[in-house]
Write a structure and sequence with these properties.
By secondary structure, this protein is mostly helical. The chain contains 14 helices and no strands.
Length: about 325
């Protein structure tokens, strides 16, 4: 590894000029800019959007570099309507910088604009998810408390809570008598994920909860759920989840990814982790870290495939 670290910079220093020559040749031969070649030639979804994103990020054009910086600064705070304005603005800047005539290339602005909305929709989603993670659970906040109690009611409708602080919370996998301490790492994002799973996919959530209560293969439902919030959050933060979300907006004919799409990704991970855990036949809960890491690797490997999109239509086949 040390030798590679020394050699690779030299290799790249020789390759980089060749890449520039190749781009010049392709432009001269096709009379198309790199962004045009991507939009016309790459497969719709993650393949095309990722290549457009890379091209914009590495652009040497001052106008395009300024555009990228401006959109990056604005994206976290824009409304849906304002986000949709990114596409025509970006298309105008790029077409002017690259001298692309709309009458000669009428499809470029549409194809390119779709990628722009998806790219900065994802960047806005990163900010929104981070905001939820940074919001601490506050037992003095009535809305927080109501969501926590709603989680119990959805998962354990036949067993009313005897009190706000109760050992009963351990029945759904919290560590102690008061769940608030378990949300310290993932904040309200952890609770919102658990609640969304129990609300949108109640049968699947109860199915997973039942598995977690298995006498020999059981695990702590809520704690594992919060760990999976961490996994989903890291997939988004590192950009690994772009493959899924860039393909998702195309398949569902959406303009951009939303927080609800993040919740659905989480539900998919929880449901699939439960299956992975049961099939791994663990000796006990001490095998959790090894199985968790193995599961994470399978998802990262899947996301390296440009065609990957996780199916969030959860179907309970058997208990």
């Amino acid at each position: 590894m040390f030798i590679l670290d020394k050699i690779l910079p030299f290799i790249f220093s020789y390759i980089r000029p060749l890449v520039g020559v190749l781009k010049w040749f392709l432009h001269a031969f096709t009379r198309l800019s790199e962004l045009q070649r991507i939009c016309y030639g790459a497969i719709e979804g993650a393949s095309r959007t990722s290549q457009v994103e890379r091209s914009l990020t590495l652009s040497k054009s001052p106008q395009i570099r300024r555009l990228v910086l401006d959109l990056d600064e604005a994206a976290p705070y824009v409304s849906n309507a304002e986000l949709l304005e990114f596409a025509p603005r970006a298309a105008r800047v790029v077409m002017q910088a690259k001298r692309i005539k709309s009458n000669v290339h009428p499809d470029f602005a549409r194809l390119f604009g779709t990628c722009v909305t998806s790219i900065w929709g994802y960047r806005r989603l990163m900010h929104q998810v981070e905001q939820l993670r940074a919001e601490r659970y506050d037992s003095d906040n009535l809305e927080h408390e109501q969501k926590l109690l709603q989680l119990w009611q959805l998962l354990m409708p036949e067993a009313p809570l005897t009190g706000r602080v109760s050992k009963q919370w351990q029945d759904i996998g919290f560590q102690g008598d008061d769940p608030k301490t378990d949300f310290r790492g993932m904040g309200m994002l952890g609770l919102e994920n658990l609640l969304y799973f129990a609300t949108a996919y109640n049968d699947a959530a109860k199915h997973v909860l039942l598995h977690s209560m298995h006498p020999t293969l059981g695990y702590t439902y809520a704690i594992v759920g919060i760990n999976l919030t961490s996994m989903a959050f890291n997939l988004v933060k590192t950009g690994a989840a772009k493959t899924h979300f860039y393909n998702l907006v195309v398949q569902h004919r959406q303009d951009f990814s939303t927080v609800e799409d993040f919740h659905k990704l989480y539900c998919y991970l929880f449901f699939e982790f439960d299956r992975f855990w049961m099939e791994s036949d663990p000796r006990n809960i001490m095998d959790f870290r090894e199985i968790y890491q193995a599961f994470e690797i399978t998802k990262l490997e899947a996301l390296h495939n440009d065609s990957t999109i996780f199916k969030t239509n959860l179907v309970v086949e058997s208990v």
